Amino acid sequence: MNTACKDIKKKLSSLFDELFTHEGYADLRVEMRILKRGQKEVILHCGKQYRYVTDFRPDSPSTRKAPVIDYPDVTHTEEAK
Q1: What is the C-alpha radius of gyration for the chain, rounded to an integer number of angstroms?
Q2: pLDDT per residue over 7-26, tens digit each?
Q3: What does DSSP say about strands 29-35 and 39-46: parallel, antiparallel, or unpaired?
Q4: Cβ count within 10 A of residue 46
């Protein structure tokens, strides 16, 4: 686990602790996106946003590929009124 990932987990843990002790409503959301060049963007939403970009290398490269959906050619015609 790289240093950036440890920093993200530390921030997530501190935000959770802060929200848990809050006496009102709280909202915490984590968003992750795969970026180019072997990186991931991690966004922590908690009133404010904490954004991180970190290098990401999966333990084992996935050989799965996204399914290809082949749509038939559809022609739309408009009727004259």
Answers
A1: 21
A2: 999 999 999 998 888 877 88
A3: antiparallel
A4: 17
- pTM of this prediction exceeds 0.85: no
Which of 46, 60, 59, 61 is closest to 8 using CA atoms?
Answer: 46
| Tokens 């038939």 -> residue | 72
Please give the structure tokens belonging to residue 62: 């996935």
Q: Which residues pair with 34 in a beta bridge?
A: 40
Say if CB 56 and CB 41 are below 8 A apart.
no
pLDDT tens for 29-71 read: 999 999 888 889 999 998 766 777 888 777 765 555 555 555 5
Nearest to 16 by CA among 7, 25, 8, 28: 28
What 8-state DSSP symbol labels residue 80?
Answer: P
